[in-house]
């Protein structure tokens, strides 16, 4: 590693308290998607005092921001998230389920660490640009509403990411690896049906049931499932069944639909078919409905060039090390859930040799924390979940890493995650992620050939063009 790169990594280490403090403050705020006012304000204030030029409310999203430093190209984007999840309030560092705030929210996806680690990377790259005076710009993007709202997709609608030479990010996980492969595109639409209330026994002929419309819509979609791609998924939740009295013809009912496909253009088409089923249900029941677009996000476009670069830097920097106390805590935490013996790494699902190798690494490791770096895997890989990082990856070369912040097999969106995310184990993951992303970004600033190769790969993989799942008139929102 060059002297300048080591100095940038050291600049991150010097700010370790600031980064850990940021992670803890965001954990305490635990704000839901698109309501991250305190979190965004703290980031903006901190980044301003760190010497970044901050723009608040970018792309018309109040809790989004950008913080940039430097001048000219290349422009490297680093993506930060900071939204929490409802119903997951939990005491930090605890080994049992104990709410910190009754009925409160919690950082069950580790976005308190995600944002702080992304900030760490930006701080490191800024130190490098300051020191070397080399051309180039680093921009930290504050991306709200990852769990609902898909801010990055709304930003993609404004072509925000097309201005970048590359985007890098990370996610806390139970393993250290460079992420690869694709994920599902996902579109959410809410259908609110309106009928006419009436006495269900006395004057049923005068009633029109919105609940019937929801039921018929669900049956229609059930039949649709036979005639769609086998990789597509359609989920629904009845968020308002109209009321609790069976003797009333329900005058209102709401259903929230989620359409997933491994290709965003297919998801958009499939979603239109669900719309037509809603029209059919309204016709059959003589009701009306309002359609409210909630959010949509694309599948992820992988970039092997950037993944290789991240893996080189990850290998050089190693993985976070853990004290005996941290090992004891995470070992004990791993006894509180099922699946603590699963093999980490997406490559294990696709490649038996890779899986055998990882099995050896796990047994040599001998603890719940995966304190080793997974070998680079670039074979076929697909995650059925969804992320709005996908929309960024359709507009510029994008790659991400995972850093172990949780013990092996720790379920996502769980109280165990929230517990870990407020400990030194979490802090170490955030700081380390910042270092790896920073080191890779510095390579990109210095290597036009790598950027060219990443761009050529990106153009080839996105040749068909990006179908933005966000309609022109949609505004960022979450479901009722
Ligand atoms: Zn999540
Ligand atoms: Zn997440």
Question: Which features characterize this protein?
Answer:
single chain; 480 residues; alpha/beta; Aminopeptidase; Alpha-Beta Plaits; 2 domains; seven-stranded mixed beta sheet; four-stranded antiparallel beta sheet; 14 helices; 13 strands; binds zinc ion
Could you provide a short overview of the structure?
With 480 residues, the chain is α/β, with parallel strands linked by helices. It has helices at 3-14, 16-29, 37-49, 111-132, 151-157, 210-224, 264-285, 304-317, 324-333, 352-365, 389-393, 415-420, 424-446, 448-461, and strands spanning 53-56, 65-71, 75-80, 136-142, 166-173, 177-178, 182-183, 185-194, 233-240, 252-261, 288-297, 382-383, 398-404. A hairpin with an 8-residue loop joins strand 1 and strand 2.
Give an overview of the whole structure.
- The protein has helices spanning 3-14, 16-29, 37-49, 111-132, 151-157, 210-224, 264-285, 304-317, 324-333, 352-365, 389-393, 415-420, 424-446, 448-461; strands at residues 53-56, 65-71, 75-80, 136-142, 166-173, 177-178, 182-183, 185-194, 233-240, 252-261, 288-297, 382-383, 398-404.
- With 480 residues, the chain is of the alpha/beta class.
- The chain folds into 2 domains: 3-182 and 299-461, Aminopeptidase (3-Layer(aba) Sandwich); 185-297, Alpha-Beta Plaits, CATH 3.30.70.360.
- The strands form 3 sheets. Strands 1-2-4-3-5-13-6 form a 7-stranded mixed β-sheet.
- Bound molecules: zinc ion (2 copies).
- Residues 109, 147, 413 line the site of one zinc ion (ZN).
């Amino acid at each position: 590693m060059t002297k300048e790169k080591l100095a940038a990594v050291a600049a991150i280490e010097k700010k370790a308290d600031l980064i850990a403090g940021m992670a803890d403050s965001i954990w305490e705020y635990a704000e839901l998607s698109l309501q991250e006012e305190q979190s965004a304000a703290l980031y903006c204030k901190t980044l301003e005092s760190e010497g970044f030029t901050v723009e608040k409310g970018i792309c018309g999203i109040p809790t989004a921001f950008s913080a940039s430093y430097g001048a000219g190209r290349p422009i490297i984007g680093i993506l930060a998230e900071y939204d929490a999840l409802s119903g997951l309030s939990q005491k930090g560092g605890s080994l049992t389920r104990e709410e910190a705030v009754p009925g409160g929210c919690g950082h069950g996806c580790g976005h308190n660490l995600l944002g702080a680690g992304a900030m760490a990377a930006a701080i490191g790259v800024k130190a490098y640009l300051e020191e070397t005076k080399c051309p180039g710009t680093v921009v930290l993007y504050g991306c709200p509403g990852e769990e609902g709202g898909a801010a990055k997709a709304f930003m993609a609608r404004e072509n925000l990411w097309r201005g970048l030479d590359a985007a890098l990010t990370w996610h806390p996980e139970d393993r250290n690896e460079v992420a690869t492969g694709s994920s599902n595109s996902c579109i959410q639409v809410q259908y609110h049906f309106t009928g006419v209330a009436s006495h269900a026994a006395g004057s049923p002929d005068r009633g029109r049931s919105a609940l019937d419309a929801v039921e018929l819509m669900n049956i229609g979609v059930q039949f649709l499932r036979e005639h769609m791609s086998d990789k597509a998924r359609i989920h629904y939740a009845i968020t308002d069944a109209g009321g609790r009295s069976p003797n009333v013809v329900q005058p209102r009912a709401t259903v929230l639909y989620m359409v997933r496909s491994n290709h965003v253009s297919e998801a958009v088409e499939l979603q239109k078919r669900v719309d037509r089923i809603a029209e059919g249900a309204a016709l059959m029941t003589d009701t009306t409905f309002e359609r409210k677009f909630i959010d949509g996000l694309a599948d992820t476009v992988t970039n092997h060039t950037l993944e290789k670069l991240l893996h080189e830097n990850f290998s050089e920097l190693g993985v976070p090390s853990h004290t005996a106390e941290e090992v004891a805590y995470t070992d004990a935490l791993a006894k509180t859930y099922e699946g603590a013996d699963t093999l980490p790494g997406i490559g294990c699902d696709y490649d038996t040799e890779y899986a055998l190798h990882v099995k050896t690494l796990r047994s040599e490791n001998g603890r719940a924390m995966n304190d080793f770096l997974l070998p680079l895997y670039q074979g076929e890989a697909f995650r059925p979940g969804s992320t709005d990082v996908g929309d960024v990856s359709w507009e510029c070369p994008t790659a991400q890493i995972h850093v172990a912040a949780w013990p092996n097999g720790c379920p996502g969106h769980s109280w165990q995650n929230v517990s870990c995310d407020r400990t030194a184990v979490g802090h170490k993951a955030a700081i380390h992620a910042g270092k790896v992303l920073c080191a890779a970004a510095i390579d990109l600033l210095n290597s036009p050939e790598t950027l060219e190769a990443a761009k050529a790969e990106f153009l080839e993989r996105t040749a068909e063009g990006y179908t933005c799942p966000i309609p022109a008139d949609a505004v960022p929102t979450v479901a009722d």
